[in-house]
TrEMBL record:
Protein's UniProt name: Quinolinate synthase
Annotated family: Belongs to the quinolinate synthase family. Type 3 subfamily.
NCBIfam families per the UniProt record, alphabetical: nadA (TIGR00550), PRK09375.2-4 (NF006883)
PANTHER family to which the protein is assigned, alphabetical: QUINOLINATE SYNTHASE, CHLOROPLASTIC, QUINOLINATE SYNTHETASE A
Enzymatic reactions: iminosuccinate + dihydroxyacetone phosphate = quinolinate + phosphate + 2 H2O + H(+)
Keywords attached to this entry: 4Fe-4S, Cytoplasm, Iron, Iron-sulfur, Metal-binding, Pyridine nucleotide biosynthesis, Transferase
InterPro entries documented for this protein: NadA, NadA_sf, Quinolinate_synth_A_type3
Necessary cofactors: [4Fe-4S] cluster
Sites where the protein binds iminosuccinate: 25, 42, 119-121, 140, 233-235, 250
Source lineage: Archaea, Methanobacteriati, Methanobacteriota, Stenosarchaea group, Halobacteria
SUPFAM superfamilies documented for this protein: NadA-like (SSF142754)
């Protein structure tokens, strides 16, 4: 049962001491977050990983986050992901091979310098590709700064893989007129010269959790609860972001509720576990999930089961490192360049 599991996790952590640090993304379940040394958004977790001294960084999150932690930590530190099944579907929507082919087609159509920016939600080989082409990584908290960096260095941006974050960022920078989409799966619809004629080329990827939020959810809520405020993640569709009161990364969503006055009502347009944490952490604020709690569950994040956390910790006590995430050395160096550029902006 949960009490017994908690005791086992605590006993293992007491014995492992400073050898282990647990990082947990805001979307992890309560039973993981409760054991984490640090809970935050993707950007904060990458900074925590960079500063970690522990031999083992146990990552409560998804594969691309653990990969980034492996890239950023020293070679003698190991990053452990309690489940190897925790893969973000959006990251899988832009494979380096596919991007390479699109890059060749689009760059052949223009003499302008295109700078690729990949969202953190991507695999290390794509991060390495972006570094090689003069680009960088961004997260939802610094995408606007990454765009500014890219437009200082070059003429155009190829943004991967999340079209909604790309579109929302272009609006934030008043560049919405410059957008064109590139659908890598559409054999008919790809027009490299049309793509190359625009300043912002958006890869047609998306998050299947955030795409399910609709502007009608906000309209219905405002009708039923005119007093409610709405905060959403920038992976949501443009019309949802436009209808919300606040938009931002998972840490911005946390701060918004933290800063609310007692008695305020906030509806949360992001993964359901964060809405549940905020409800527990801030009993003085009324926290509502924007769309009930049935459909906004991230399958990838959910793979990190507390039983697996117990297992990887107890295996470490026996001297066995399980589920170590290791980025291939040839990708590591370049991907690090793309991440470092982000950490510097
Ligand atoms: P944050 O960087 O805002 O934590 O978002 C990560 C993520 O996967 C959102 O779906
Ligand atoms: Fe990926 Fe969406 Fe899950 Fe975030 S919420 S990890 S983008 S599938």
């Amino acid at each position: 049962d949960e009490d017994e599991r908690t005791e086992r996790i605590e006993a293992a952590l007491a014995e492992l001491g400073d050898d282990v640090v647990i990082l947990g993304h805001n979307y992890q379940r309560r039973e993981i977050v409760e054991h984490a040394d640090f809970v935050g958004d993707s950007y904060q977790l990458s900074k925590e990983a960079a500063n970690a001294d522990a031999d083992y960084v146990i990552f409560g999150g998804v594969t691309f986050m653990a990969e980034s932690a492996d890239i950023i930590t020293d070679d003698d530190q190991s990053v452990i992901l309690p489940s190897m099944e925790a893969s973000c579907p959006m990251a899988g929507m832009a494979e380096a091979l596919q991007v390479d082919a699109a890059w060749a087609e689009i760059t052949a159509e223009t003499d302008d310098d295109i700078i690729p920016i990949t969202y953190m939600n991507s695999y290390a080989d794509l991060k390495a590709f972006c570094a090689e082409q003069g680009g960088l990584v961004c997260t939802s908290s610094n995408a606007h700064k990454a765009f500014e960096y890219a437009f200082e260095k070059g003429d155009k941006v190829l943004f991967l893989p999340d079209k909604h974050l790309g579109e929302n960022t272009a609006h934030r920078l008043d560049m919405a007129e410059e957008i064109v989409e590139w659908d890598p799966w559409d054999p008919e619809g790809k027009d490299a010269s049309a793509a190359a004629a625009n300043d912002i080329i958006l890869w047609d990827g998306y998050c299947q959790v955030h795409e399910r939020f609709r502007a009608s959810h906000i309209e219905d809520l405002r009708e039923e609860r005119p007093d409610a405020n709405v905060v959403v993640h920038p992976e949501c569709r443009r019309e949802v972001v436009e209808a919300a009161d606040v938009v931002g990364s998972t840490s911005t969503i946390c701060e918004t509720v933290e800063d609310a006055d007692p008695g305020d009502t906030w509806a949360i347009g992001t993964e359901i576990h964060l809405a549940k944490h905020l409800d527990r952490w801030h009993p003085e604020v009324e926290v509502l999930p924007l769309c009930g709690d049935a459909c906004m569950d991230c399958n990838a994040m959910r793979q990190i089961d507390p039983n697996y956390l117990t297992w990887v910790l107890e295996e470490l006590l026996e001297g066995r490192e399980r589920n170590v995430i290791e980025v291939a050395p040839e990708e590591k160096e370049l991907a690090q360049v793309a991440l470092d550029r982000m950490l510097e902006i």
